[in-house]
Amino acid sequence: MMAAETKTTCPYCGVGCGVIASVADDGGVSVRGDPDHPANFGRLCSKGSALAETIDLDGRLLFPEIRPSPLPSPRKERGEGYSGVTTHISSLAPGSKEVAATFRPPSPRVRGEGKGEGQVSWDEALDLVARKFSETIAEHGPDSVAFYVSGQLLTEDYYVANKLMKGFIGSANIDTNSRLCMASSVAGHRRAFGSDTVPGVYEDLEEADLIILTGSNLAWCHPVLYQRIASAKEKRPAMKIVVIDPRRTMTCDIADMHLAVRPDGDVALFNGLLAHLAKSPALDDDFIREHTNGFAEALAAARTSEADIISLTGLSQGDIEAFYRVFEGTQRVVTCYSQGVNQSSSGTDKVNAIINCHLATGRIGRPGMGPFSLTGQPNAMGGREVGGLANMLAAHMEIENPTHRERVQRFWNAPVIAAKPGLKAVDMFKAVADGRIKALWIMGTNPVVSMPDADSVADAIRNCPFVVVSDIMRETDTTQYAHVLLPAAGWGEKDGTVTNSERRISRQRQFLAHPGEARADWRIICDVARRMGFGAAFAFENPAEIFAEHAALSAFENGGDRDFDIGGYAGISPTDYDVLKPFQWPAPSFPLAGKVPAERADGGGDDCALSFTTPTRPLARTPSPQGGGKASAIRFFANGNFYHPDRKARFIAVESMATERVNLAYPSVLNTGRIRDQWHTMTRTGKSARLSSHLAEPFAEINPDDAAALGIADATLVQITSPHGKVLVRALITSRQPRGSVFVPIHWTDQYASNGRVDALVPPVTDPVSGQPALKNVAVSVEPYKAE
Ligand code: SF4
Q1: ipTM surpassing 0.95, yes or no?
Q2: pLDDT band at 220 (very low <50, low <70, confident <90, very high)
Q3: What is the pLDDT of residues 106-136, one digit of tens each?
Q4: With 549 labelled, which of 293, 576, 636, 779 sits at a CA distance of 20 to 30 A?
Q5: Is ligand 1 within 6 A of the CB of residue 246?
Q6: Do residues 518 and 493 make contact, with C-beta atoms less than 8 angstroms apart?
Q7: Could you tell me the domains of the chain?
Q8: Ligand 1 touching residue 19 (CB < 6 A)
Q9: Cα of 18 to ligand 1 centre, how many Å?
């Protein structure tokens, strides 16, 4: 008998690949790439193809729990030196002594039999959450509570969480772990374009003659896009690829040029490029004059002496000139950027320095051209669409715009509306630490591992009077501090939508039963909202109803002043939602016949059939070379219309400055990031033996010269220390790592390794515009580990 097949979307990175999941009669699950999905056309990377290996119930949180006494924080547990959990790497280190005194066994398998300690009914748990939040708000005001949510949530989950906090509680204290991933791109887009708009589409990566990958290890972090580019380059060897990254990553394997820029040298490099372009025939004077403001000021700020560019970037004059020449001489240029750009104290300036160069040459919004922010998480983009950031409202409306606030409040028929931006992630946990936040709900994320200054975050959460965590896993570094644990449905167990880096909305579909008593996040949030007295506004029966409301709000009194609009889906029925095919936004003007039109279901119509109601709308639709005339791509800004009130883009003057953090005590630069086969804190990918065999343990990449100077041998244990914490990992000596620096992956946690949380080393330094933490330029010391 044929296995039942379900089309869904991968839950890992922002590429947003289509997946076909098959469930056999015996319950066995297999996955393969969806050949019809426009993000991947059947491809999957190692993580996507191992999805079926990560859906067992080991370690799952299956029932609501109320825990009276959260565990001590890592600092208290650790005391002096390393006395906490140990790492499995100690047993693998030849000749090394045991690192720590105790070993935490793996979490017991939880299969839903029996009643665990603290297990309560849903009613008991939800009543307590609603009562505690209501009492805290009544006593201390709406800003005394906060939601910390996740780019793993589906858009429908995000929508109701944002609606509850901003429209019914009346605070904007909802922020997301996507703040750690793409907030600088959002801020840069808004400064330059007047909207948070990614202008281009994935096809641009295949149509470009020059691709610049800056701060992006695409081969490991967005592997299917890497595959698409590698395959395009194979067909068109003349295509040039430049990688700008301090490390010689695997992405460099397809690069024609690797610029090993110094940490945070990107602004200087792109400022120098702008100054170079200003003297070249590539400058598009007409575009600058007719469609932009601020060029002269940006150019004045960009003019940096050659010596300063060399010193700030650490690059040779020859390499810099070669890069500038290839950019100048190539019309079809796409500049992709990701966490190496965003996760910086100058992240927003970096984004604008890149966009400035595309505006100066008019290379934006046309096939094969434009700046392209790659989102890290599967639904970072969907969270932006529904206002899941502390400084945004739903549907890309602005919290500081009174017209937008009134519009959203009226649409929701809400008793209040947040009047000012809320606390961004780092500030939110500072407010938890100093007692301003007294009730915190963490949804689908693990901030005790992923936040900078992670030990302080753990202390803050532990000391918070009331902490709720909804998660799929029972024992994470964060769930141990919860007073209430709410079991959430995971991938394959729930329905909803996600939006990928090219603004394409795709369905995630349920093909597995909810395990235990797990519920979808949107339902949990609505259950709490109803108990807080907001029943009418949260009476959703299914995610299709939420999506329809979200779509209607996006179109509500839309005068063409915003980029995000999916109003054409406002009347979508649950039946049409069930069969919804991937489509790109905006989608403002499809007819509502209670049925998804074929052209809409295909993600576009034949031959650009879409017409837009606002003539100055900054859009263009072009047929896709991949889509065989069916799918087509929507790009923004080719016609030179932007979303600032005067319809012009803004050049932003940004300064080329050094961000020197190292000092005598902490002389090395720590860079953090992902590896190919793990996702975030490994709660899912850590279950796959295949994925874990790629790189089985935490490590520190160290340059051979540094290792020799420090007396560190390959595969021995090293201790990395900053003023905020320390980690213990194994040395991986490689010339891919530049001298004076060390790279440690973000994935391992105290669940897997003693003091393995690398973000415990990172100070809570943020970009002043975006609030995004600087996770890639941290001063540390590196030394061989000596057992005490
Ligand atoms: Fe999933 Fe990203 Fe891999 Fe695609 S590239 S299969 S979305 S992890």
Answers
A1: yes
A2: very high
A3: 333 233 444 567 899 999 999 999 999 999 9
A4: 636
A5: no
A6: yes
A7: 4-54 (3.30.200.210), 121-181+380-540 (3.40.50.740), 183-373 (3.40.228.10), 568-632 (no CATH), 668-784 (2.40.40.20)
A8: no
A9: 9
